[in-house]
Amino acid sequence: MPGRSPFIGDTDAKHLSSTSIPEKRVCMQHIIVIGGGVVGLTSAWWLAQAGYGVTLLERAPDVGSGASYANGGQLSYRYVSPLADQGIPLKAVRWLFQADGPLRFKPETDLHQYRWLASFLAHCRADVNRRTTTKLLQLGELSRQAMAQLALAVPFDSFGWRDAGKLVVYRSRDVFEQAAGKPGAGEVWSPEQCGAREPALAAAQHLLAGGIYNAGEAVADCHAFCLELAERLRVHPRFRGIVHGEALRLRAARGRITSIDTGAGLLTADAYVLAAGIQSRTLAASAGIKLPLYPLKGYSLSAPIRLDDVAPEISVTDFERKVLYARIGDRLRVAAMVDMVGEDLRLEPKRVDGLLRLVRETMPRAADYSQVAAWAGLRPATPGSAPIIGATRYGNLWLNVGHGPLGFTFACGSASVLTDLVQGKAPPFALDGLTLRR
Ligand SMILES: Cc1cc2nc3c(=O)[nH]c(=O)nc-3n(C[C@H](O)[C@H](O)[C@H](O)COP(=O)(O)OP(=O)(O)OC[C@H]3O[C@@H](n4cnc5c(N)ncnc54)[C@H](O)[C@@H]3O)c2cc1C
């Protein structure tokens, strides 16, 4: 492999016996995956399993330190409806005027924000939302199966996976009745049932109009998953190591990517996968490809659960407030907010305090809030919430980007689809709406 020397890389991948790894066709092709978040790591794993030699390029000292670090932990295979929907523009205006509302907007001088917003508004139609939801449900189901397959190598208990089920609670009667009336919505619970079956909600049940429960959705620790997967990759016979360096530019000639300029040297391979979260936008632009991505900033809070705390067993979504609650290991994780403020990762005290107030009101005894840790991350989002997987105009450049609010959920399915495409195989379902051409 060329060009590893300029970097502080991991030690060489050890060549262990591959008894637990199904042998696929022997293939000498070498692929560099750019980005060691949950999407890049799963891509690297699936490609290595398919027989490719894989190198991971990650600019941070460790994997999983971008958006994949302290996200909501939901593996939300069926709750996938895009944010862009009929009626959302009006709701968004109301949210902007709420003190602790789920949305913030800070105008930028860069036109990118306005272009993305214009495209988002164009996606706010019931028919577009339905079409995208159908595709995301297919990707979700594939992701569920792919995650179960991966669990043979990365056991569920190594990253706090729990079959938690999902309860979506509603505060407004109208919104609740509308949701409950949809065919196949799930089990409809009264406020009292919400409080009885999920005691973490008992103190707030008087604020609720009701809830809808669905079994089969899971939660897990995305960061722990990234670390575990990186460990398994390090001993994979076809994994060539993690190179710690920053990709600055993709160099192209005659319809192919020839190398990655990393500032400290060039890296070359037979093919390249771009999976660098929100930074994929800049890297793709260096090769003349416009990616419709915008960083939707979100916050999470994590607080330790004590013996006498009533932490949620079920994963709870507060529909109107757009807040997720899940117990991940021995911590309560709360995730929320969509702030359109560019690539600004600062923790705004007002946002953190507002979220904490809401959490204390909704689940007052769920955790020790005096020890809360706040975090912010950038969801790499497309206007219609569908990721972009697959080919580009360069024969050897592939994309796995734009997973927005559900990158953990879709990572395994996306990696498996990407690998099919790189191998020249037909994907398991038609990918219209999930590719660069949309
Ligand atoms: C508050 C919040 C809550 C969320 N909750 C959930 C949830 O409950 N369920 C769910 O499924 N999803 C959730 N998400 C979304 C999910 O976290 C993201 O979709 C997912 O982490 C994106 O993964 P990624 O690998 O594409 O990006 P990242 O995790 O950001 O990884 C990109 C990696 O690329 C590296 N990189 C960037 N630029 C370069 C470069 N030039 N050279 C080398 N390396 C580079 C970065 O260092 C980083 O490690 C949430 C997100 C947020 C912010």
How do you describe this structure in short?
This protein has 438 residues and is α/β, with parallel strands linked by helices. The protein contains ten helices and 20 strands.
Q: Enter the CATH topology name of the domain at 89-110 and 160-217 and 295-380.
A: D-Amino Acid Oxidase, Chain A, domain 2
Range of helix content: 25-40%
- CATH top-level class of the domain at 89-110 and 160-217 and 295-380: Alpha Beta
The CATH superfamily of the domain at 89-110 and 160-217 and 295-380 is identified as D-Amino Acid Oxidase, subunit A, domain 2
Average residue pLDDT:
92
| Low-confidence spans | 1-27
Order of helices and strands: EHEEHEHHEHEHEEHEEEEEHEEEEHEEEH
What is the helix tally? 10
The unique ligands bound to this protein are: flavin-adenine dinucleotide
Layout of strands and helices, then pairs:
Layout: E1 30-34, H1 38-49, E2 53-58, E3 74-75, H2 88-97, E4 103-105, H3 111-123, H4 126-150, E5 166-170, H5 173-180, E6 187-189, H6 191-197, E7 210-214, E8 218-219, H7 222-234, E9 239-244, E10 249-253, E11 256-261, E12 266-267, E13 271-274, H8 280-285, E14 294-304, E15 315-318, E16 323-328, E17 331-340, H9 349-362, E18 373-381, E19 388-391, E20 397-401, H10 407-422
Parallel strand pairs: 1-2, 1-13, 2-9, 4-17, 5-15, 13-20
Antiparallel strand pairs: 3-8, 5-7, 6-7, 10-11, 11-12, 14-17, 14-18, 15-16, 16-17, 19-20
The structure holds flavin-adenine dinucleotide.
Flavin-adenine dinucleotide binds next to helix 1, strand 2, strand 14, strand 18 and helix 10.
